[in-house]
UniProtKB/TrEMBL annotation:
GO cellular-component term (any): cytoplasm
Example GO biological process: RNA processing
Keywords associated with the record: Methyltransferase, Transferase
Protein name: rRNA methyltransferase
An example molecular function term from Gene Ontology annotations: RNA methyltransferase activity
Family the UniProt entry places it in: Belongs to the class IV-like SAM-binding methyltransferase superfamily. RNA methyltransferase TrmH family.
RNA 2-O ribose methyltransferase substrate binding domain sequence ranges: 33-108
Pfam families: MRM3-like_sub_bind, SpoU_methylase
CDD domains: SpoU-like_rRNA-MTase (cd18095)
Lineage: Bacteria, Bacillati, Bacillota, Bacilli, Bacillales
Xref: SUPFAM superfamilies: alpha/beta knot, L30e-like
Length: 269
């Protein structure tokens, strides 16, 4: 609707958008990138604050054109850009014609820093040193499906708002309450919620644990597991049997099994 197309890669705004591929810049500015029609649509429908929607006017599929009009209808800033600009801003090699700069949401976590209500036991996840952003995003996707109260991401866990994590979450990063920081401190502030360590071949079998209490499932690093300082705060330990052998399960697979078992115990499935 009359917006002037940005074509230069040296444009100051293009440099600002491209800088959001770096975690430090995302945290400093409180912004992240949503790439492609699916994620831009999720951002628009989840009610997040959108700084600007970028689109390539020469690569407008019906889906992209519909999203651009929806963004305009919601009063969002819409900016046409050259394809080379999208390629510079986005992490994916072949952008899908649209992206959005979105404000990192701040959603409250029930049971965090307050006593958890007994009639609705809190179910949370804590990620301790998960390095692969794809794994972080996959855990968020499971967390949304199960309906967890929130996900805590330690300082040494991959940024849940990195482009790869956001893509892997399929938009779950937009709606699941997420808190980032020093995990030991965050666990201390989760009053009345019992942190449970996930281990390989140790502790109670996961389907025999009492999931009918406020609980936080702690998932550790893909290689070394849970850090000693976080392990000291855990009040229980569960494991998932692997009768066929193997070193361990993928962290997102383990999260899915544990979270759905917790929901089954609570009669929520």
């Amino acid at each position: 609707m009359g917006e002037e197309e940005i074509r230069s890669l040296q444009n100051a705004r293009v440099k600002e958008w491209a800088a959001l591929r770096r975690g430090k810049e995302r945290r400093r500015r409180g912004l992240f990138l949503a790439e492609g029609p699916h994620l831009v649509g999720e951002a628009l429908h989840s009610g997040l604050g959108i700084e600007v929607v970028l689109f390539d006017p020469r690569d407008q599929t019906p889906e992209v054109a519909s999203l651009v009009e929806e963004a305009r209808g919601k009063g969002c800033s819409v900016q046409p850009v050259d394809r080379r600009v999208l390629e510079r801003v986005c992490e994916v090699i072949t952008p899908q014609g649209i992206a959005a700069v979105v404000r990192i949401p701040e959603r409250p976590i029930p049971g965090f820093a307050v006593e958890a209500p007994e009639e609705d036991p809190v179910l949370m996840v804590a990620l301790d040193g998960i390095q692969d952003p794809g794994n972080v995003g996959a855990v968020l996707r499971v967390a949304r499906a199960v309906g967890v109260a929130g996900v805590l991401c330690g300082e040494d866990t991959a940024d849940p708002f990195s482009p790869k994590a956001v893509r892997s979450s399929m938009g779950a990063a937009f709606t699941v309450p997420i808190r980032q920081g020093r995990l030991v401190d965050m666990i201390w502030h989760a009053k009345g919620v019992e942190p449970v360590e996930t281990a390989v071949g140790e502790g109670v079998r996961y389907d025999r644990w009492n999931w009918n209490i406020p609980v936080m499932i702690v998932l550790g690093n893909e290689g070394r597991g849970i850090s000693p300082e976080v392990r000291q705060l855990c009040r229980g330990k569960v494991h998932i049997p692997m009768p066929g052998g193997g070193e361990s399960l993928n962290v997102a697979v383990a999260a899915a099994l544990l979270l759905y078992e917790a929901r089954r115990h609570r009669g929520a499935l």
